[in-house]
Fold these 4 entries.
Entry 1:
Amino acid sequence: MDLKTLQTFQMIVKYGSFVRAAQEMNYVQSTVTMQMQKLEAELGAQLLERGAGKDLRLTEAGRLFHEQSTQIVKQLEQIQTSLSNLKLGESGHVRIGVIEPAASYRLPHILKEFSTQYPHIRISLEFGNTPALSERIVKGELDFALCSTPELGTELYFEPLFQEEFVALLPDRHPLAEHPVLSPEQLCGHRLLITSETCPYRRKLEMVLQESGQSAVDTMEIGSMTALKSYVESGFGVALIPRILAVEASAGTTVRELEGNLIFMTSGLLCKASAYPLQMASQKLYQYLREQLGRGLEPA
């Protein structure tokens, strides 16, 4: 038996008529009759019989079969709908990797809007740094990632979308707070709070400092970028952080511009080169993030 035959049987029971069932299923009546004959032969039991007024009624076997097949039909119809939505990219499971601060400060409202448009697409977020996310993409553990520029190999495809511009965050009473704009050279002699060694933001910062001749800067490593604000507030030192992190500066801290927009980090979408363009639901989310985040690559 197949789904169409079960649906036909349900229609016959619902309307009590072969003719009406044929109309609802867009069949000729002979097709409905043949389906029922085949179904009863497969089951080895009579399901329907004519009453005194030629009305159809269920036999005992028919009542049992109708009762137990109703849920089967509903489940099979749901499976068909789910598979159809999956094929169209309207449903599915997308696994994406994200770095900070984009994960906490850029994605929440974007993903909320996306989920409103595509409620049947399930999204899983994995947090990490760019090298770790790149490795997981290559292994097939993530569909794509929102991250900084990776060390590209032949296996990866990166599409730059925007730049995270850096600003200086420092305690209100810090000696550098009297300057409206800071240069990398002015950081010499002051403790700089930095992220972990594997963080691309730290690598970028170290490169800029080296280019300005500040290779021997007093530093303190803080493993979490989002925790830097709290340590600045406590007076541990100065932190160079993405501007988006400084929008809501903690009490007791102040934000200063950096001279010449020298420090910024390009971010974008990363996936396996062999998987681009992505398929189905992953492509829907990829395109949506591209539209929402692709506001230009020049620092503000």
Entry 2:
Amino acid sequence: MHKSSCHCGAVEIEIYQLPASLVACNCSICRRYASLWGHLTQETAKVSYESGAASFYKWGDGA
């Protein structure tokens, strides 16, 4: 199992099974950080956070 968290530690992720493949995004932020994305399911990973520690963000209008 692999464990990680966001920078401040409020959100944690546990990955039980690594993804079969990774995807390279070509947006400016992912290119800058050479990020690779893995697609996980509820069976292969768990995201946990305390109430109020996370919120949704939508690019563009900032909602």
Entry 3:
Amino acid sequence: MPKCQSCGAELPEGTFVCQKCGSAVELPPPPPPKEGAISRERRERYEKEKAEKEKAEKREKEEKHEDRFGAVIGGLILILLGTIMYLAQNRVIPWRNFGGYFLLGMGLILIIWAAARYFSEAFKGTALGLLIGGLILGALGLSTLLELRESWPLVLIMLGLIIIVGIAAAVRRSPRPR
């Protein structure tokens, strides 16, 4: 049984104050942990913190790239609108074709954006949705300009089939996760 440092009275386990003299009881220091456990815990904590820091840096880098691409796309859309309006006002193109030219231009912008994302290190391989959207808008614009008003649904069906066949081929080439 431990003894009080002040008066020497025996102290029951778990007491923090001596019942005889009222002085605070000093607790013995905890036993030292095993040597291997400290280094392993420190190493695991260090690796976890390092991984979290790398993830945060990667997210920050992607956000910066996304902001840059978004500003460029916004500028391209304004240039497209201004160019089409200028050409229509100067009677180079008829106003009735404004929508067709705009859809075709937007399709091209999305395809350019998809190419920029695909060849960018931060967004490697995340351009399929932009490419599909660009192809659809471009096909709609082109069908409007070529006055294929009744056949544009067929263009969409053809694009859908091309996409499905392309995805099916990609799935066959890639290994399945286990």
Entry 4:
Amino acid sequence: MLRILFGLALLCATPAVAQSTLIGSYVWQVDDPLFGGFSGIEVTEDGQGFIALGDRGTFAVGRFARTNGMITGITLDDLRLLSGADGLPLPRLESDSEGLAIGVDGSLYVSFESTSGVRRFSGADQPAGPLLETPAFAQLQKNASLEALAIAPDGTLFTMPERSGSAMRDFPVFRLKDGVWDQPFTIPRTGPFLVSGADIGPDGKLYTLERDFVGVGFRSRVRRFALDGSGEEVLLETGILTHDNLEGISVWQDVQGLRMTLISDDNFRGFQRTEFVEYRLTE
């Protein structure tokens, strides 16, 4: 009887599994020393344009060419360094930019890992605002802090660290609402996956992109939650070497439903690649 009850408890604790279908992938190459290391992506509502964030303090603005909905080419319109308040590029020690979110007014928000805070840019060519931080960030692990950033339609920001501080500790989700930081919920830390990106989709749910490095390559997972951390669903879990080091996620909607656009961080290494990957959610 106890064994039966334990089995039922495990069944109830298992997150729901939704379906995702690979649409296609596209390897992007540009001959520029600033190009690479992409850790964040936001796609425009029509699916034709994007802004990507590099983890050495860069914005890349571009447009997709599509055939039957699949990416078949990319036009790069702008590639530039993030500017500080003085209009000069952010110092190297302050430019470890990891998470990207865009508000309804077009403001760009970037989370930083080294300085553990968030900055607002009114445009890709505009200087940074002040660092938005809270004392709670001081407890985050060095080089593993604010990896992911998402924004709700009302402007509320959600950010989370790459690591939780312990394999047995859930990932904290920090919220900036009406100028006040709090930590309203956590998301479960299950398996070896670490947080690499986040977005809030048109359905109002929080999507987390996670990755696991296994010696010869990466595997990826995407989960979805309500904005109180409940209702966990596993949308995608890949095998090793299915894709490169996926770190950025943008969830948007076309006439067929929800779509995820993911981008990889090549770590500025020749044996890795900058890859756009798209999946259709077919729950």
